Amino acid sequence: MTDEKTLRQRIRGGEVLVALVGSLHTTKSQLADIWATGLYDYIWIDGQHTAFSEDSFVAYCTAAEELGIDVQLRIPHTRHAYLVGRYLDLGCSGVLVPEVMEMETVDDAVAYTYYPQIGRRSWGGAERRGMLGVAQDMDRLAYAAWWNDYAILSIQVESVEAVTNIRKLAKPGVSVVTFGPNDLTFNMEGHVEYPLASVDDCMRNVAAQLDGTGIRLAMGTVTKPEERKKYLDMGITLFQGAAPA
């Protein structure tokens, strides 16, 4: 085992972290070169709006783990929350569930992210995170305990319903609430009487509701370093960055 902090511990500790918006077409050597820049802390893969195959994702996660890099996957659809255990079996360290509005979605995501006795994730999967390194010699119970403190479950706020109910949606087991400003804007345009007038107002409202919970906030779109101060002032600590040109 290593004394290095896990990504989840760093997130929980409030470190300002940047996720590389990754591509499954990136080779291991290219990824190593990108990581050598020191600009990124983990990788974010969009399984919702980009082409995605399980074989390519397994290969990518294997390469990333060999380089000591954690991968987060935005799963393809909100209603796939019950499948997060399946996605995690492919080798990522965390999942992001998009467009969360109902508590039942979070219940599924929590249940299938964590092993018993926290959740009900099924045992198995040779490609799971840790099998190449720290967890490869653990027995079932030791691995489950390690994973339950390692996994990162994120939910995405993209509606006024989610903003209003975020304190209920951000249940135990959720580490991160991610903002989706574009879809949130769409949704707000259909709720012209909503008392919060802008996406920024919604972000501040969510931050206030979650203050003191230990749940961290993330931007779900790419921002440049010079654009982040406003969001840092709101309490957002997790950002996305594009790959170097």
Explain briefly what this protein structure is.
With 245 residues, the protein is an alpha/beta fold. It contains eleven helices and eight strands.
What do these coordinates show?
By secondary structure, this protein is α/β, with parallel strands linked by helices. It has a single domain, classed as Phosphoenolpyruvate-binding domains (TIM Barrel, Alpha-Beta Barrel), CATH 3.20.20.60. 36% of the residues lie in helices and 17% in strands. It has helices at 7-12, 28-35, 54-66, 84-88, 103-113, 140-148, 160-164, 166-169, 181-189, 199-210, 229-234; strands at residues 17-21, 42-46, 71-74, 94-97, 152-157, 176-179, 216-222, 236-241. The chain has an 8-stranded parallel barrel with strand order 1-2-3-4-5-6-7-8. Strand 2 (42-46), helix 3 (54-66) and strand 3 (71-74) form a beta-alpha-beta unit. The longest helix is centred in the N-terminal third of the chain and has 13 residues, at 54-66. It starts with 6 loop residues before the first helix and ends with a strand. The relative contact order is 0.14.
Annotated CATH topology: TIM Barrel
Strand count, sense and closure of the main sheet?
8 strands, parallel, barrel
Instruction: Tell me the name of the CATH class.
Output: Alpha Beta
Q: Mean of the pLDDT scores?
A: 96
Order of H and E elements:
HEHEHEHEHHEHHEHHEHE
Largest sheet, order of strands side by side?
1-2-3-4-5-6-7-8
Distance between the termini: 36 Å
Radius of gyration (CA) equals 17 Å
User: CATH superfamily membership, which one?
Assistant: Phosphoenolpyruvate-binding domains
The portion of residues assigned to helices is 25-40%
Shape: globular
Quaternary status: single chain
